[in-house]
Every structure is written in structure tokens, then in C-alpha cells.
Amino acid sequence: MTSYPHIKIQSEDFDLTTEVAKLRQGHKDIGAVVSFVGTVRDINEGDEVSVLELEHYPGMTEKALEKIRLEAHERWALESSVIIHRIGKMYPCDQIVLVAVSSRHRENAFYAAHFIMDYLKTNAPFWKKETLPDGNERWVDARISDKEAEQRWAS
Amino acid sequence: MTSYPHIKIQSEDFDLTTEVAKLRQGHKDIGAVVSFVGTVRDINEGDEVSVLELEHYPGMTEKALEKIRLEAHERWALESSVIIHRIGKMYPCDQIVLVAVSSRHRENAFYAAHFIMDYLKTNAPFWKKETLPDGNERWVDARISDKEAEQRWAS
Amino acid sequence: MLNILYFASFREMLGTANEELPATYQTVNCLINELAARGDSWRQALLDNQNLQIAVNHDVASRDTMIKAGDEIAFFPPVTGG
Amino acid sequence: MLNILYFASFREMLGTANEELPATYQTVNCLINELAARGDSWRQALLDNQNLQIAVNHDVASRDTMIKAGDEIAFFPPVTGG
Fold it and tell me: In B, residues 110-149, which contact A (CB 8 Å cutoff)?
């Protein structure tokens, strides 16, 4: 099985400082690190959310994320990058996803991290199911705004 | 003297996880946190750099950074933001600056963090002096590219 | 054989996460037509669904994608991670 | 009195970090003309310098900015933080 050391799919939480330190390790010529952390909001579509459950497609997820990551490296001069996405049950305020990118100059890191997130949102096979306080469950709908955000990067 | 709790000028290092936790504290409706960390590169203008010394203008620095931060909050829907800038002597790989921004949706956080950094680079009164391995010191020149980066945000 | 996977709302709606079928279909479309004949929920999920997402061997695919024995074909709704 | 501050390369070149002067100047420009008369390095830093940065009371200012007793006027090169 192909290994993707810069992609992690895990149920455990992650620590930002630790992950950024790993990202920078062995790269002295870094001037900029941009990190994005996505977190569980307690409100979605106007309803309170108690639990968020993340399902994914093992195998395809890693491949899709690595493809997005490598495309970012092709488009911008980056030193290193990492994508961590959690799966399983999460609760309001929990961390869901980390995208961290390092580069010599800040502009590349900002664009690359934003690009990776926009592509992840529409191309990586994850699905969210919400549980409301009354116990009802519902699958989260894909957002048109996410598709539009992805399309802005079309070259 | 005016207090700016979201602006810190300090000689000590900072911890990313700790600062992001503070940024998020009391804000449940956060879905996105974008952090930028600027670090000391060991090469500048083709020369190896041993020490970087950061001087600033006490009083004006805080006021300038708070103005930039508030302008970001006016332009984008943000939940919270923080700017930490170190002063004094730093060495290759050290952290120099942190800009962290939280919002409901990722786009606002990405733009705001990028904007704050671009404005900080050209509007906050900090100056860098490099010491080269032979002991020679030189003041770092302002970059034209930083001025251009700022001007892209002109509305 | 073909390995067929269903994810998220599809898995729940169709009541199955995966199944094996003989590799007697040339394209994804042929397979979909066969599956849609099983009943309303199958037809709605796979045939009448403008938002159907398809992957063949972990890559994004379309109804026209050719398939062969040993392939893994997945059906799922638009993704909502991140 | 006026409180005058010099930062970074200006402080080194002019050999002073701050000084007090009587508040006898209407504008920053008048003050600069007076200081520039002190010698070559003063003229180069303050008068011949396209990149001179000026702040009055912690706000960005220009040569035309009016000044009055008690003001803090700072001269410095383009900033290079971040």
C-alpha cells in the first residue's frame, strides 16, 4: 500500500505546535508557515449541533489528499506541507482538520493553504453527519459556496 | 496608556497551540482559524545570517498594529484576532511574528490573516538588523514586493 | 468480480456498505442501470441523481468510465469534509 | 518643547536616539530644514531622503503635518518587521 507521510487520517486530536514543528523540521530556509484549523461549530443551518460524525472512504481519501497537496506544491514554491483530517465522532469546538504549509515567503504559503482547503472541501471523500440535541441525525449538505470557492482556482 | 489586549510586543517566544486556544476562548461559533508564523531564515539577500535583531517604536507599534487589526475586522466577518511580534535578538528558525484570526467560515480568516501580514510589513514600525557570520552588521532593506503586496488590498 | 462500495447517505438509503458483483459490465453506466432496476431507492440514488459521485479504483470517475474484473467502484453523495 | 526620536539606521547615522527642541516650528518641514542644517548626515537622512518616514504622536505624518508644543516627532527609515 502506498504510504503518504504528509497525509494523516486519524480519530485522535492533533496539537498545532507539534505538527508545525514537524512540518518545519529539516527545512531551515522557511520564512513563513500558514496553518488552517477547521473546528466544529455548535450551529449549522440555524440548528444547534451536539455531535458531528465524520465518515470517509479509506484509500481514496489519502490518494485524493495527496493529489491536492502535490498540486499545491506544483503551483507555489513551498518547502513542506501536511494535511491531517480527523474521522469519527467530534463535538462543538473540536478540531476537525489541519492544513499547514511552509515556504520562504508568505504569499505562497497563504495561497497554497487556502487552495488545499478549497480543494479538500470538494474533492476529498469525507462526509459529515450531525446529531441535533433532540437526537435526530442528518447528513450535512454540500455547499454551493464550496464548489464556487474551488472553481476560483481554475487556471 | 491605552491597552491593546490583542496586540503583544515581547522578547519571549510564543506557543502556537496556547495562543490559538486563547484566540478561540469564549467564541463557540468558530469554524476556521488561520495562523501565520513568520520565522528567521538563515539566508537573506544571498548571505548567511547569524543573528537578527528587531528594534521597534514603543507606543506607535501597538497603535499601528491595533489599527491594522481593526481594519481587518471591518473588512471581514471575524470572531477574534491576535498579533504577537517579538523584539530583540533572534536566531535562524526562531519565530518572529504570529498573526492568528478566527471566523465562522474559512475565506474570511484566510483573507484577513494575509491582509494583516501585508499591512504589518509596511506599516508597523519594526526594523531588522542582521549580523553576518563575519560579525558585520547591516540594516535590512525594505522590499518593494512588500509595498506591492500591501497595495493589492487597496479598495 | 467487481467490488461495489456505498458511502454516507447512500449506504444508509440502500442498506448496504459493499457487495461483490460479477464483472459483466463494460462501463459504470451499465452497472448503474442494472443496480437501478432493484427498486425505487436504487433508481433515485444512482440513476435520477444529478449529484451522484463515482470513483473507480480510488479515482474520480464518470458514468462513461470503463470497468473490468477486480475494479473497486464506489458511489457516494457530494463530499462534505473539512 | 518637542520630543524628537530617531530609529534604526537613523539613530546610528545621526548618533542620537532622541532629543528635545523648543516648539518653534509650525510644520514638520520647518523642523527638518533646521535639523538638516546640522551637517551632511542630517541633510542626507532628513532632507535628501525619498524614503524618510515621519510619525507625529504615533501616527504616520508627512512633511506638511502641523506640530505644536508637547508633540512627539519621530524620523525613521522604511519599516522591515514581520
Answer: 110, 113-114, 117, 149
